[in-house]
């Protein structure tokens, strides 16, 4: 268990990644309890997870900044962390800053491109294959420099616009060929990072709504390369509640007439989602769920709006209008006031632990038992949170019994 | 399946019972869809339930009124049902009114006693054993008159004050003896009705927070008599949500610091709960849950207040203060605006169907798989709604496979 | 005071107008208390208002229906009124239905046009001047037939798309000339109705966000014709609250960072506002207020969405994020669950009473003291509700003292 | 205007007082904008207020602590202030700590007494007259030591239990006599502080629900001594909203059926209010308002509960059930998430400024124009916030015109 593990984040200086870095440093130093970590709670807690001290952070980002600067912004705008904590994690921040490389801007959309710094912009003209090669080189340097036993690439970058559905009809040889064409096929950066990861034997976690590994061609590549992956779109707030409350209405045979959800928040993610193209990806990821859970389509409305003063505090208001016995209309409303990065970061650390354990055990392909972490879980048979969580618990119990046998 | 089934409600003219009567008549006549009925949804829907047309309603009530009058009050104060519907169920109402007998006032507390009509008050001096005998006679007359194949007694009466905990240490012979003593032990009416039901071979459902069958002595009697029973306290609103949302906080290892729930409503139940003695029983039933689900005790507060203008519309506001990663405090709030009687009535019909089916199949004793219906489910191994519902589904699948084999 | 008064509604069979008709009939028959009527409360109540019994309803509508049918829809979808009440107002409904004429479709936008019935569509080709002439004829017939002493035209029709700002630069002779041109200037129906009203000496109340009389040319015409008018856009819910709560934040010097308001509802008005062109007019009317009250522009967001299941029940959620002492960010949220037509109708009756009184007294031009009734009050010097209401009270006190002198 | 002003707070190390100290130091040093100060906004801002730099803080407290320690608690529990700000105000904190003297425990109730430190407890046996004499000595020493031109005593201590209504029937000579009796009359500390203040020529502001100066005998004394005073119970949150929203329902003639307000918070004030005796004083102060505003008594419910995790963040949920036209029941709900001390402190500074100005101008007796600051304003003719604020504005305009004349 003294294996060295690399955690490579795409969007390495974003809000979620900065919180992951802050939290990892705090956990290494014993400055904080592992509240919010699913893997810190039984029956998962006793699995032989990688030690926090064995993790090293690196990553790509299109912006140029530092962990200290980004954490300071979170503190000032959203009153999360504390100046004292930030002082104590400063050394880790400085060390990890050294491992961040310029990001890729291939097919990320105008809004994301507008945020890029000079270093990333210097690669604006690179082709998909050049981008993949550059990413691979960065990953391999990181692995070599830190003598890593295992490497996990996690996408926590801003949401890209939707992709051409035709991409889902290609197998890996076809996709690979089209990537190298003189007019290469439009595959967004989130997938290029994943290809590079797979090609150099790294695992991949897609914590965003971007397409990432959610293409048959990439699933194929993961299996060929013998790596594990999972995703898509971390489930932290309103959608988590939909996957928890929706099954209740279904079980009670209460007919949901309409479910309206308005989300407001003010972080960088919000700015990116202010672009209708990027927002479309996100809303789609949030909206398919209820029909799957209920078995019919209620009228739904999902809005996500950038309200600067809220900073990282996502405030959601949901209004659920339902019909009970004898046609009686009733209503449930909730408001959720959660700090997005603080809800997401422990789940990222959970997924890194789980993915690392599976990689260590030699698993390959999609991890189907982590559906409870995602809004649009790949390979998961159910949209209901309780059942998804039960699948995770059963996996943990299975692994536990295997470790005990040894 | 052409068996005749009696549904005997204690609190027969109360809001829940009146809604059961209205709904049953509407279902018999095909005037309404079975929305809100758990048994009308797969995988439960295809079990060989008793036909709505085979059910007859009778019951006890301490007040003197009619279904038509009580339904009119619900319509006027709470705008549920509709005048048109009430016209169409008038014949059933009139027939069922004939089957309602004066209720029992033994150990029901001052508040409930103050609501009693003359007929019930004429029995004020009866001893527990006299009350049991009277109830038995009423039940047997009902069974005979309507040539019933099966009889289900359902408690939907107002909440009684808490009982002496020492009652839980008695076995049936001991309890029976103390009931006949010259200074009889203080057993409330809810249990006397249940004893009478068991003694004449009827099943029992305790839909209220009152103690009812929730005593070892009564469990023993049910087994001896070969009858089935279940309970305690129908889970229709705020507590349902606690059993749905609590597991989410637990699964995500988010630390719940405090959970405050304020309930306001204006029906008769609310007036009874305005008495601190009666309220204590109810609050206890609502408050134990979170500690069981979370594994620790957050600060909790549950209030239930009578606000006349709300009528049958229970409005609950819950404020959940929880701590996430790095000690970050977040909040979720919800408001629930549900019509209590309309939420409860279909569950009563569900429980009648389920109890009747088990009685028909010759089961006896406690039904442990209906935990999802109750706030304080007897014999249920888990406080989590999703797991409770899974138990119901598994029971249904088992029964289905048994019926298919035949 | 036995003068006969005509209340001519544009949008005569819409939700607000149907509720006005129901309410007027109920008030005439003494079936309902005048709750929700500002003029029924002191110091306004004792002014010599026209008797309810002296009012007769007529109007234009582009749809073809009846009051009975529309009231039945409100009852069924939104559970307002009651079948019993609707029976009792049926005779008035039938009489007033006779007074409804086909509406005008000139420049109302595609969405409204799509709702029109055959009779109104038969006038699709009419020119603005033809439309004005037709309206005048309808008004004059109504006046003659019912021997009316005074006639008040009230616009309660659906919201039109915004108009060309250049219209505000024309005086009446210019506008009149351009209306008669071979390619007539694009003036919407709401203004054509007002012109016709003014030309035949009727008063006008614009209860909608449509432009109506809010053009210098029409103000000029009103003065020339010696008629009174007021408007614009009845203030019934969320905006009312903004005009009440905004001044509190201003007075306390609390800095409003953002004010987000999401409105959902499911009546016909909602369907029309689902068209972005029509919605633009409405949102503009709702959004200017805060800047006027606060003296700076906070970030604001106003959404209005059609959610069918809500019927006439407008549900608004507002989230106000404000900064207090030492930069501390705090929040207030509210939800408003109001029945739009039932909130609007008594205000319409109030405005009819007030307008009739002023017309009776020989006033002319804009009524500046009714700002409290409107979202975008014409001629009102303040956006604050309390001050607006004070203006109304002072007007009432002035009139009262004048009447007492006589 | 270079006069030196003493601000003497009773409850000097409490949450409100600590925030006053923090804010005053920040304002003196130009570290913060005067957001939340009513007197920093026109038309009040241009009055010749005392300079922040001319104010010195002193006070009484029954606890023994320091400003630095109390501010640290506020930071840690409630995330208000910031460590950086607290560093910058440390010198002022240290200086002001020197001016805090042991508080008085006469008739404060068990709950408050239980919080007292040793120094205050050493005076447990003192008689009312001894307490008054001790307070006077402290005030006079403070005035002398800092060569103060004017001294304002502000009560920001915890809420005392209600007093004997008979106290309101005494004049000053009677009260004075009974205070000196061998079994002295039960006058609580809040009034003893006020007597001492008046006797040594200091002004008094009662920012709490405790009785303080709200007795005819004390009003008499204030006039005799030629000092000014005002109060009672700062209006910062839920009650502020009642005084803003209530008049809207009244003006619109909407009938309020019920108004339910649940308040939860976790600061020291909350702990004191957890004692039913102390809570009674507070609830009374919060509950009389609506009847005054509406002209009839709706069903009301006010709860205040201590929920530790909330710290200084007062969260209130109000549910307003009202009846509109044709008996239609509608609802408004709001939640208020405000930081109590941060809302109160700027109002304390406002009242100090206003009181100092009036004292400087030689006014005496009750200040009737500051009703907008208080829940139970003494001498104020109206319960409506807008009218109360208008009275303040008119006072400011009057004073402004007087200053301009000179």
What does this structure look like?
- Chain A is an alpha/beta fold and 406 residues long.
- Chain A has two domains: 5-234 and 342-403, NAD(P)-binding Rossmann-like Domain (Rossmann fold), CATH 3.40.50; 238-339, Dihydrodipicolinate Reductase, domain 2 (2-Layer Sandwich).
- Chain A is built from 16 helices and eleven strands.
- Chain A has a seven-stranded parallel β-sheet, sandwiched between helices. In chain A, strands 8-7-9-10 form a four-stranded mixed β-sheet.
- In chain A, α10 (216-225) links the parallel β5 (203-206) and β6 (228-231).
- In chain A, α1 (15-28) packs across α2, α1 (15-28) crosses α15 and α9 runs parallel beside α10 (216-225).
- The mean pLDDT of chain A is 94.
- Chains in contact: A-B, A-C, A-D, B-C, B-D, C-D.
- Chains A, B, C, D: Belongs to the myo-inositol 1-phosphate synthase family.
- Chains A, B, C, D: Pfam families: Inos-1-P_synth (PF01658), NAD_binding_5 (PF07994).
Q: What count of domains describes the coordinates of chain A?
A: 2
Name of the top-level CATH class of the largest domain in chain A: Alpha Beta
The number of helical elements of chain A comes to: 16
Distance between the termini of chain A: 15 Å
Q: What's the pLDDT, averaged over the residues of chain A?
A: 94
Return Rg of chain A in Å.
21 Å
Query: What order do the SSEs of chain A take from the amino end to the carboxyl end, as H and E?
Result: EHEHHHEHHHEHHEHEHEHHHEEEHEH
Find the structural class of chain A using helix and strand composition: alpha/beta
Percent of residues in helices of chain A comes to 40-55%
Largest sheet of chain A: 7 strands, parallel
- Based on the structure, what is the oligomeric state of the protein chains? homotetramer
Family (chains A, B, C, D): Belongs to the myo-inositol 1-phosphate synthase family.
Protein name (chains A, B, C, D): Inositol-3-phosphate synthase
GO biological process, one term (chains A, B, C, D): phospholipid biosynthetic process
InterPro entries (chains A, B, C, D): Myo-inos-1-P_Synthase, Myo-inos-1-P_Synthase_GAPDH, NAD(P)-bd_dom_sf
